[in-house]
Amino acid sequence: MKHFKADLHIHTCLSPCGDLEMSPGSIVQTAREKGLDIIAVTDHNSTRNVRPCLEIGKEFSLFVIPGCEVNTQEEVHCLCYFPDLKALDRFQQYLDEKIPDIKNNPELFGYQVAVDKDNVIVYEEKRSLYTGIRDDIEGVQQKVHSLGGVFVPAHIDRMKNGIYGQLGFIPVDLHYDALEISKRIHPEDFLRLHPELVAKKILRSSDAHFLSHIASVYTDFYLERPDWESFKKAFYG
Question: What confidence score (pLDDT) does residue 18 get?
Fold first, then answer.
């Protein structure tokens, strides 16, 4: 087993409130400069900026996991990770069907743009990616697992958009693969508050919307190799 540093919650310039400097190239370069081995690209309710991150990641020998941060019907944020671009495309089709037709306000939430490897804008999402989609947390979880993905409720220590803050509890029939806590709390302090979660897999990621935030916290993985099979196995070992 080898040690890998992973930041599994990073937003690009496609996300609302994501800094326009968060281009795929800048993210990958910054991640490498900060010693990361694995990152996940997790824009709000969209996967359209993942491809160039994967392409540039290969050039820098950085394992980039295709992902998304979904805002559910209950306003709970959930991290969704996928094995490949085929699964990611099918998830984007699902999102396109579930995103409400509410126009984005760039002056309030920022522009929502996808760019290519050369930072040329190739797409602008006109619908708001800030709002909750038309599906509940169980529906999102089931969709992710049907595509062979990994499902992780995000920043559960936060009152806003965390599962405890929005629902008050974790549903007993919610089949999550791990739970994420934010950089605002240390894992030991969190588990003292929630001893019932001591045996669960806990991730800690930056939720970076700015380059300076990347790798501000990260999770240590011990894997046979930096690939999807080893990554997914870590959640069940």
Answer: 77
